[in-house]
Amino acid sequence: MQKKQRTQAARLKGFRDYLPDAMAARVAMIDVIRREATLAGFQVIGTPALEYAVTLLGQGGDETDKQVYRFKDHGDREVALRFDLTVPFARFVAEHQNDLAFPFKKLQIGDVWRGENTQKGRYREFCQCDLDIIGVDGAAADVEILTVFQRILSALDVGGFTQAVGNRFILSALIRHLLRIEAGAGEASALIALDKLAKIGTEQVLGLLHAIPGADAGGSAALLSLLTSHDSAGHTDLGLIAAELKGDDVSLKEIDRLRFVVATAAAAAGAGPEGLRIDLTVARGLGYYTGIVFETTLTQKPGFGSISSGGRYNDLAGRFTSRDLPGVGGSIGLDRLLSALEEMERLKSHQVKPVFVAVATEDALGYAFELVGALRAAGIATDIGMVAKLGNQFKHADRLGAPLVVTVGGSEMQQRTFALKTMKDGTERRDLPASGVVEMVRTSLT
Amino acid sequence: MQKKQRTQAARLKGFRDYLPDAMAARVAMIDVIRREATLAGFQVIGTPALEYAVTLLGQGGDETDKQVYRFKDHGDREVALRFDLTVPFARFVAEHQNDLAFPFKKLQIGDVWRGENTQKGRYREFCQCDLDIIGVDGAAADVEILTVFQRILSALDVGGFTQAVGNRFILSALIRHLLRIEAGAGEASALIALDKLAKIGTEQVLGLLHAIPGADAGGSAALLSLLTSHDSAGHTDLGLIAAELKGDDVSLKEIDRLRFVVATAAAAAGAGPEGLRIDLTVARGLGYYTGIVFETTLTQKPGFGSISSGGRYNDLAGRFTSRDLPGVGGSIGLDRLLSALEEMERLKSHQVKPVFVAVATEDALGYAFELVGALRAAGIATDIGMVAKLGNQFKHADRLGAPLVVTVGGSEMQQRTFALKTMKDGTERRDLPASGVVEMVRTSLT
Asked: Which chain B residue shows the shortest CA-CA distance from A5?
C-alpha cells in the first residue's frame, strides 16, 4: 500500500474534546439544569453562535473586545463569535419583543468563545447556562432568581455552597458618599478595586482607592470597614450602612429590599446564612448591574472562585430598543463547575452500561437482532457483538462494563433459546426461552 | 432622558433564533435521539466548534471548502468553524484511539456552519446528529446502523418514511463494467451524474453519462436500466445485477451482503420494503463511501429530499493515523427535519404550561414562595406572579397557558390557606389548607 501524507490530529490549544465519560457527566448536568429551570417556569431559547460584530463589541469592556473571535464572512460582513450569552440575548429580546410574554423567564445553554490566555488554565470554548427574568423590576423577580440558582446547585449535588449577595446600587451610593466623589470614572475605579478584594486583600485595595483622583483618603478606610462589617448572623451589617446613608431615601429603600429579598430567598430555599449571605463586597467589576449582584463559591473549593454569578441590570436591551426592559439573571459556568466537581471527586459516572448480546455464529445474527430489538423496546440499553470471534465479543462486553451477556448461536436460533451470563460472578444459565428474554434480563439486572 | 444612539437588533442572514415553542420542539427531538441512541449502546461525545483549518479543508470537495468559515485567530493560526461533524470526528478518533474501546459507537449532536447561498432556503448554522460505529467492518454493524436510524425516526414520530439503501462498491463496479472505464475521473463523473437522477431524470443523466470521455454509449442505457429495475417486492433487482457482474466474485459477495443486511435490518425494525428498500441508484455524490449508502425520505414530503443519510466508509481517519479504522454511520439533519415536521403539522407542542401562583399583596410574597417551593419540589412546574397588580398576574398566567392559578394574599398567609382557580372553566375554590397544596394541585391537574 502506498504511504500517505498524514496530517497531525491536533486540536487547537484551549479547546477540548469530550470523551464519553466526561460528556455523559456534562449532559447529565445540563439535564438537571433544564429540569429545574423548567419546573420554575423558565423557557429554553437559542441564538446563533455568530452575530454582527457591531452587536457584540463594546459591551464587555476593552479586555473582552480583544478576546472576541471576529472576522469577515463570505459577504464581507464583520462578524464575531459570541463571547457570552447576555449580549445576544439583549439583541434577541429587542428583536422579538412583540412575540414574548413579559415578564419573560428564559434559560439559554450554549458555548461561548474567548481568545483568552490559556496559561491561566482557561478554555477558549466553554459552555454557559444563563437564566434571566426580563421585563420586570421588583423583589419577587430578585427572589425568584436567587431561589432557582439555589435549587439548581442543590440538584447538581455540588456539596456545600455560598451564594453571596451584594447590591450595586447601595455599593455605588456608599462609594460616592464616603469617597466624596461624583458618579463617573472615580466610582468605576473604586468598583474595579473592590472587585479584587478577595484576591489581593484589604491593604492593596486601600492603595487602589487612595489613588483615585479626588477621593477622600479617610473615606476609603471607612468604606472598607463598613463593607467588611458583619452582623451576628454573618451578613454585612446593613444597620451600620443604613446609618451612614441616612437621608438618602432611595438607598435606604434598596437596603430594605436587599434584606427582604435575601431573607425571603433563604426561607424559600431552606438556606441558612452559610448558604445565602448578604455581602456588600460583591462588586462584579464594571458590568451593567444596577441592583442585586451575586457570586457563588463552593465550600470545599473556595479558591476555585465563583461558579455562578449574576445580578439585576435595568437596561438590558437599551442599545437596541426604546422599550424599558429591566431584568435580573445569572449564569452557571458549566465547564468550570464540571472541573470543580472532578477535582472534588463528586463526579458520578453517568455512562450507561448496556446488556450485551453476543453472536456465536453469523447465521444467528438476525435472531440476535430480534432479541436486541425486544430488549431495547423494553427500555433496556443493549449492545450487540459486531466482531467475528465470540471471545473478542466478550472482551468488548467487559470493557463496556456490560452487567449481562446474552449469547446466541445457530442452535439457540433453532430452539429459540439463549444463554445468559452474569459478568460479575461468571455464572451462566443456558437454554432460556427467547420469549422470556426481557423478563429474565430485567430480573437479573436488579 | 438623553436620546441614545441605537444599534439595529439584527441577526445575520441565514441564522435563526429559537423562540420557546421551536426550541422546546428541538430539545424534545434531541432528547428522543439521545434516548434511542443510548438504548442502542451509542455513547455521546463532543468536539470543538473551531479546528485548525488544515484539519477541515480539502475533505468535502471544492464547493464545501468555499463555504467554510475560516479566519486567523489571535495567535495568527488559520482556524475554521466545522462544516460537518464527520471530519472533526476523524480527528477525534485518531487523537484518542488509545482511550476508545473499538468497535466504538458514538452519537454526536452539534451545530455546523456553512456560508451557503441562503436563497435556496438553507441556513448557515444548523444542527447535525451523527451516529457512527467505528473500528469494524461487517454486516452486523451495517444492520445496527440501519436499525438505529429506523428506531430513531419511528420514535421521532415523523410519519411514514423510506430508507433507501444502495451500495457504492457494487455501483462503482457496475459503472466500470458497463461503461468500460477504469476507476478514476470517469467513474467519479458517473457517480455525480447518478446522484442527480431523482432531480433531473433519466434523459438528462443519460446525457451526462454519454459525455464521459471513453464511456461506452450503449453501456449507459444498460446501467440506468439495471439500476432502476425492480423485483416483485420493489427492491432493485439484485438478481439481474449479479448476472451482469458474473465472475466478479468480490462484487457478488457484496451483493449477498447487501441483501442480507437489508433483510436483517428490515426484520429487526419490523419494516416492509416501503420502509427499508434496496435502491442501487442511491449514490451519495462523491464522498468517502465504500459500502452501503442510504438516504431517507418522508412519505408525506418526498420533495423535501433526504432527512437522514449515511453509509460505510472504510478509511475515516486515514489522513491522521496509520491505524485501519473502518466505519459505518449516518446523520440526521435536525433542523431540516424540524422544518419538515412543521410543514406536515406533525410538530407537537412541548412547552410546559406551569401552575401559576398569584400574589395578591406583597406581604404574602414569602408565603407564596413557600407554596411555590413545595409544588416545584413535588415535580410540578410552577411560576409565580412578579408584577404588581393581581389582574395583570392573571393575564400573564393566561398567556402562559397556566391550567391552574393558586392565589395568596395577606389573609391567606395568616390562615395558611390559598384559593385555587381552574382556568379552563373559571371555577374557584377558597380557603384550601396550605398543607394540602401539592395534593390538591395534582388532583386538579388530572
From this structure: B319
B26 touches chain A (CB under 8 A): yes
Nearest to A9 among B81, B95, B136 (CB): B95
In tens, the pLDDT along B279-313 reads: 999 998 767 899 999 999 999 998 888 999 999 99
Last residue of some domain: B251, B280, B310?
B310
- Residue B4 in any domain: the answer is no
DSSP B275: T
Domain match, A286 and A168 both: yes
| Contacts with A47 from chain B: Cβ below 8 Å | 17-18
Find chain B residues with C-beta within 8 A of A365's C-beta: 139-140, 143, 264
CA end-to-end distance (rounded Å), chain A: 51
Q: Is B374 exposed, middle or buried (0-12, 13-18, 19+ CB in 10 A)?
A: middle
Same-domain pairing of A277 and A174: yes
- CATH code of the domain covering residue A423: 3.40.50.800
Evaluate whether residue A153 is within a structural domain.
Answer: no
Phi-psi region of B289 (alpha: psi -120 to 50; beta: other; left: phi over 0): beta
Q: For A325-340, how does the pLDDT look when each residue is reduced to its tens digit (9 = 90+)? A: 999 999 999 988 998 9
Quick check: is A125 in a domain? Answer: yes
Q: Do residues A184 and A293 both lie within one domain?
A: yes
Name the pLDDT band for B121 (thresholds 50, 70, 90).
low
Whether A1 shows a pLDDT value over 50: the answer reads: no
Residue A385 lies in a domain: yes
Report whether B398 contacts B446 (CB < 8 A): no
Which residue, A64, A114, A16, A81, is CA-closest to A342? Answer: A16
Q: What is the dihedral of CA B133, B135, B141, B144, to 10 degrees?
A: -20
pTM: 0.94
Q: Are residues B259 and B116 in the same domain?
A: no
Asked if the model's pLDDT at residue A101 lies above 80, the reply is yes
Q: Which residue of B has its CA nearest to A18?
A: B46
B398 and B271, same domain (yes or no): no
pLDDT tens across B6-36, in order? 888 899 999 999 999 999 999 999 999 999 9
Verify whether the Cβ–Cβ distance A9 to B321 is below 8 Å: yes
Q: How far apart are CA B144 and CA A359, in angstroms?
A: 13
Q: If you average pLDDT over each of A338-342, A390-394, B112-116, B351-355, which comes out highest?
A: A390-394
Q: What pLDDT sits at residue A6?
A: 85
Mean local confidence (pLDDT), A225-249: 96
Query: Crossing angle for the helix pair A20-39 and A139-155, nearest 10 degrees?
Result: 150
Q: Specify the number of domains making up chain A.
A: 3
How far apart are the C-alpha atoms of B366 and A140, rounded to whole Å?
9
- Please give the residue range of the domain that contains residue B267: 159-310
Q: Final residue of a domain: which of B322, B348, B374?
A: B348
| Inter-chain touch A321–B9, beta carbons under 8 Å | yes
Q: Give the residues across from A278 on adjacent strands.
A: A165
Residue B59 has pLDDT above 90, yes or no: no
The ipTM (two decimal places) reads 0.93
CATH of the domain at B163: 3.30.930.10
pLDDT value for B60: 66
A385 touches chain B (CB under 8 A): yes
Q: Are residues B92 and B204 in the same domain?
A: no
Instruction: Count the Cβ atoms, other than its own, within 10 Å of residue A218.
Output: 11
The per-residue pLDDT for A244 is 97
pLDDT at A3: 52
- A211 close contact with B: CB closer than 8 A: no
Tell me: do B174 and B288 sit in the same domain.
Answer: yes
Same domain, A286 and A169: yes
User: Using CA atoms, how far apart are residues B446 and B444, in angstroms rounded to an integer?
Assistant: 6
Mean pLDDT confidence for A113-139: 91
Which one of B46, B151, B383 has the shortest CB-CB distance to A17? B46
Looking at chain B, the whole-number percentage of residues with pLDDT higher than 90 is 85
